[in-house]
Amino acid sequence: MMKVELNHDLGTEKGITCAEKILAGLAEEHKGEFSDLKQEISGNTVKFSLKAKGMNLSGKISVFEDTVVIESKLPFAARMFQGMIEKMIKDNADRMMKKCRE
Questions:
Q1: What is the DSSP string of 33-73?
Q2: What does pTM read for this prediction?
Q3: Residue 81 and residue 12: Cα distance in Å, rounded?
Q4: Hey, which residues does 86 pair with through a beta bridge?
Q5: d(Cα 63, Cα 10) in Å, to the nearest integer?
Q6: Are 44 and 52 in contact (CB under 8 A)?
Q7: What residues does 68 pair with on adjacent strands?
Q8: Residue partners of 27: CB distance under 8 A and separation at least 6
Q9: CATH hierarchy code of domain 2-101
Q10: What pLDDT sits at residue 63?
């Protein structure tokens, strides 16, 4: 299980909206690698699924007042890239959260 935690200062409601934008931004930025993005909001959680390089990924983004927790079960073939995936998520999430503050 991959788990990434990020601190933020957006509050829960704006954080949920931002989480949706982060997923959409990643899918748009990496069109050739990501496809079939699906998102579902339930309370403070955004559940997602997508295909990345032919592999099905799913997980959830839980948004709290000052923390975002991203959890995803990686397919076996992707586990060797877990560190790189976590870094990409953190870099993109930080960049997108800055845009959400504007």
A1: TEEEEEEEEETTEEEEEEEETTEEEEEEEEE-SSEEEEEEE
A2: 0.81
A3: 30
A4: none
A5: 10
A6: no
A7: 6, 63
A8: 34, 35, 37, 50
A9: 3.30.310
A10: 93
